[in-house]
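Dear colleagues,

As part of the handover before I leave the project, I'm documenting each prediction I ran so the next person doesn't have to rerun anything. This entry is a single chain, and its sequence is reproduced below.
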Amino acid sequence: MNNYKQFSFQVGGREVVVETGKYAEQANGACLVRCGETAVMVSVCMSAAPREGMDFFPLQVDYEEKMYSVGKIPGGFKKREGRASDKAILTSRLIDRPLRPLFPKGLFNDVVVIAQAMSVEPDVSPEPLAMIGSSIALAISDIPWAGPTGSVVVGLVDGKYVINPDLAQREKSRIHLNLAGTKDAILMIEAGADEVTNDEMVGAITFGFEEIKKICRFIEDTIVPAVGKTKKEIELYHIPEELDKAVRAYADKKIDWAIETFDRQEREVRQNEAEAEVLAHFADIYPDNTREIKDSLYYLTKEKVRAKIFDKGIRPDGRGLKDVRPIWCERSVLPRVHGSAVFTRGQTQTLTSCTLGMLTDAQKLEGLDEETSKRYMHHYNFPGYCTGEAKALRSPGRREIGHGALAERALIPVLPDENSFPYAIRVVNDIMSSNGSSSMASVCGSTMALMDAGVPIKAPVAGVAMGLIKNQETGAFKVLTDIQGLEDFLGDMDFKVAGTVNGITAIQMDIKIKGISEEIMHTAINQANEGRQFILSKMLEVVPEVSPELSQYAPKILFFEINPDKIGDVIGKQGCVIKKIMEETGTEIEFNSDDSGRGYVSTVGPIENAEKAKAIILNIAHDPEVGDMFVGTVVRIMNFGAFVEFAPGKDGMIHISKLSDKRVEKVEDVVKIGDVVKVEIIKIGDKGIDLKLLEKLS
């Protein structure tokens, strides 16, 4: 406790309190970040030595939702936190992405960042606090890192931008923007939006960036000088200068030959040949430096590809900077599926299916949010064969979950509400082939599958990934439309933008450099709009409108609403009434859990079955009035008349004199038990309901 320090500053008009030196003192860096009743604990640790054989920076970020933070006991047999929820995984990715570019190149020590939501109130989201806490923990640690960073959430509520909106504001906001950066540049963007304009999105980013600058300055000027440790001097991996010079001289023309073709597969064959030749040449000269030789070839290739783009405007496949790869599409490719489509752009292809179900099929959620289920489920699969790799199928990883969530975010704003379309909706993207921008291809394929399934979306959505080649010395840059795998691998940015003809619905930006300027952001968003409109036009050539009818294999669902006091009458004693209705009509009937009297009828058979069940329910719930007409069944015959059940538990009598306009000698001459008849209520008295026969139906 001798090292305990407390700091406070304002973020979006709320006080944020940071505590250091009190918890997790054996970590390289740690802090507790509070705002209101929300508290997040963050710790960072680094291994003493680099991991052997590692050729990439081993950064691991974990965000854990402590269920006690919202007063919940975890579900399941073990009653403890287990596998991270999708929300927690997505938050881990949000924390990771702005931190990663700021670690020094050549660092191969394991670095682990752990953020734990310890106490959470609905009005203060823990995610931005976890991101700020991660920056502070790294900044005050002895781990080499070029931060600090700041992070905020930006909303657009009633035409005004809001920093870290509360629960009520989040529900009304047209934008949910996660933004991170340094005091000098933007590092990470992730947003969902309700068809906002380019200017509205740029305005949100600019607004949030101003708050980020303040956060960074406070960490840098106040917290780090007070409690920051001296950064460790670590010997970073590097390519020996003599080796690098020799490899470059020998391989220069060979790499030119390898990358001069526009065909990806031929280029890869050539690159492999060139690499093998270079390795063979230096096998005796540098027998223990295979890794360094390969790295030298990688950087040489990267420089040459980037130079061709930057200096000549020639991309690896021969396209211009704004050109979209060739597109072809199909619809209704899987006959038993409720909706399906194939979207192909270049060598990236997705097969997308849409399945409709009852609202009870919605995914149940267990987490820190108030939300307990979600009606729209979007899943993304990336099997090994899509890149030609011999890999067995496995459960989805962070990448798959992240890409699925991005596409889901892009499509949610255009989905019909459950009142107008009472279905749970699942969309699955199976990536058949991948050469860059598969997540944006999945947005396009999903739109087509939804339309093919007859889901009345408000507008089609398309997505495109933008790339960047930037000269770090001069600041000059080129933005690329619809990047392929090599351009993503060797470039500086992956900026994904999805939206409709009218506006943006989702954005995600990852970078490999230490931030981008507002000018680059403006250029990328505007150029993405051009590409998105072109892609939409190609999609609409194949699926010009939403299918007017649902698939014959899709369930048919009808909503109904009755007086809540009548729910018991519909259900009946021990469920006998509702069970009988379902058996007779071949339907499923569900009531909403909110006791509103709202419910729905579903069937996989003809829609007439659902209509019949709905009519029966409405009859049960309706208080009969003189003049009402019903279809019912004759259930009992007396000398003086016939009794007709016109709703479960409700019957009336047709007096023999009301069976016909003519004289009737015997009731059986007109109707028999089991006959289906149309009747009208002519009197309601203490002794029951009197009916008049209008028509004998069977």
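The chain has five domains: 5-227, 241-312, 327-542, 556-621, 629-696. The chain has 14 helices and 29 strands.

All the best with the project,
I.
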